[in-house]
């Protein structure tokens, strides 16, 4: 069943180790899942992959992109007591870090650890009410000296991710885990290609399902994958910031989990092609696919680079509303994931040469 495959892949990819710049494990798994469905597998020199599904015509080239790197850390030092200093890979909110269990990947294997700070019992009253920032935290791997930590295999530059595992909730309706940003997007792109193959779906184009790298540190893989594919149109699959949590007014974050994927009207790095956005809305309504319109005033996606490739590439972001992104435990609805697949699949069927040409007719 389609739903079973996509949940299996999502679980496997999100449980995998892969902060920005260290995505090898995730990419290897994605490649193994797609061997049976892609007509060709391409790679750029940063490591991003593109799974190609040929249709009725070589062009237009339709790029479906989701990044596979997760926010993480890198070891930046070892003190005399064996505690590890760390630097962020991607954006972290200091208040979500304390007591987060982590995995440190070393030359000798993985080590378990925890992000900690000075015990609250020993904090002076005048400091107790202040937020502890990440530069005052450390990773405890159980070592008692710098030499012991080094003998365990730790070196400056070793990558670190939260130790958190995919979990189903509410009878399988809700998923919780790390790295949903953005392995859910990559999984949706992969699922579209898989269904094009297994269901014999006719499409008047060539589809490139891309698993991109290093998005969280500056949209780097988006730049190189666009050079590799040279797309005529792009749909970036991402998470969206769900606003259905306490303290969020409707104007700050419009989407709610379980109400359908989002069609992003604007973010900080891209205003989408308006004809492509309207096509997505029309396709969703014609096929009774629930959707939400969203505006993300801060933050961006791979589309920020892809839409300015060469002389420009009509681009759109479709998101899966997700709570608590950039933490060790995000929450999303699997119905939104499946509806995002439906929406993208229906759009791919319609992106023929004439339709894509009209996207840039003003």
Treating each run of at least 4 consecutive H or I residues as one helix, how many helices? 10
Largest sheet: 11 strands, mixed
- In the CATH hierarchy, the third-tier topology of the largest domain is known as Aminopeptidase
Q: Looking at this structure, what is the CATH superfamily of the largest domain?
A: Zn peptidases
Q: Spans of 5+ residues with little confidence (pLDDT < 50)?
A: none
Q: Please tally the β strands and state the result.
A: 17
Beta strand %: 25-35%
Concise synopsis of the structure shown:
The protein is an alpha+beta fold.
Q: What does this molecule look like?
A:
By secondary structure, the chain is of the alpha+beta class. The chain has two domains: 2-70 and 178-358, Aminopeptidase (3-Layer(aba) Sandwich); 72-162, Peptidase M42, domain 2 (Elongation Factor Tu (Ef-tu), domain 3). Helix content is 29%, strand content 27%. Strands 1, 2, 3, 10, 11, 12, 13, 14, 15, 16 and 17 form an eleven-stranded mixed beta sheet that branches. The chain has a six-stranded antiparallel beta sheet with strand order 5-4-9-6-7-8. It is globular, with a radius of gyration of 21 Å. The mean pLDDT is 96.
Task: Outline the fold blueprint.
Blueprint: H1 2-15, H2 24-34, E1 40-43, E2 49-54, E3 61-67, E4 72-78, E5 84-89, E6 101-106, E7 109-116, H3 125-128, E8 138-140, H4 146-151, E9 159-162, E10 167-169, E11 174-177, H5 180-198, E12 206-212, H6 220-229, E13 233-241, E14 262-266, H7 274-286, E15 292-295, H8 303-306, E16 315-323, E17 330-333, H9 334-350, H10 353-358
Parallel strand pairs: 3-12, 3-13, 13-16, 14-15
Antiparallel strand pairs: 1-2, 2-12, 4-5, 4-9, 6-7, 6-9, 7-8, 10-11, 11-17, 14-16, 16-17
């Amino acid at each position: 069943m389609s739903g079973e495959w996509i949940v299996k892949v999502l679980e496997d990819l999100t449980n995998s180790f892969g902060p920005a710049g260290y995505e090898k494990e995730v990419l290897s798994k994605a490649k193994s899942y797609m061997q049976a469905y892609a007509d060709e597998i391409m790679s750029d020199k940063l490591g991003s992959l593109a799974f190609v599904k040929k249709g009725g015509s070589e062009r237009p080239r339709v790029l479906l992109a989701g990044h596979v790197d997760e926010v993480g850390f890198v070891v930046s030092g070892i003190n005399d007591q064996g505690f590890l200093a760390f630097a962020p890979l991607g954006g972290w909110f200091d208040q979500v870090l304390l007591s987060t269990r982590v995995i440190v990947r070393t030359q000798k294997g993985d080590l378990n650890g925890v992000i900690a700070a000075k015990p609250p019992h020993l904090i002076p009253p005048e400091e107790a009410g202040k937020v502890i920032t990440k530069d005052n935290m450390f990773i405890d791997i159980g070592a008692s000296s710098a030499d012991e930590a080094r003998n365990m295999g730790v070196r400056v530059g070793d990558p670190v991710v939260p130790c958190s595992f995919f979990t189903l909730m509410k009878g399988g309706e809700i998923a919780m885990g790390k790295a949903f940003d953005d392995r859910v997007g990559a999984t949706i792109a992969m699922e579209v290609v898989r269904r094009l193959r297994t269901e014999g779906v006719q499409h008047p184009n060539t589809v490139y399902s891309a698993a991109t790298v290093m998005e969280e540190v500056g949209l780097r893989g988006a730049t190189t994958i666009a050079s590799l594919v040279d797309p005529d149109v792009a749909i970036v699959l991402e998470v969206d910031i769900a606003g259905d949590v306490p303290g969020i007014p409707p104007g700050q974050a419009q989407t709610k989990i379980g109400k359908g994927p989002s069609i992003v009207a604007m973010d900080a790095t891209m205003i989408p092609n308006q004809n492509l956005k309207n096509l997505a809305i029309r396709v969703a309504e014609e096929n009774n696919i629930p959707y939400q319109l969203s505006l993300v005033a801060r933050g961006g996606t791979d589309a920020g680079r892809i839409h300015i490739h060469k002389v420009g590439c009509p681009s759109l972001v479709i998101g899966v509303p997700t709570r608590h992104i950039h933490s060790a435990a995000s929450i999303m609805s699997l119905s939104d994931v499946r509806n995002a697949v439906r929406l993208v699949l229906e759009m791919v069927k319609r992106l023929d040469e004439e339709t894509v040409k009209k996207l840039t007719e003003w």
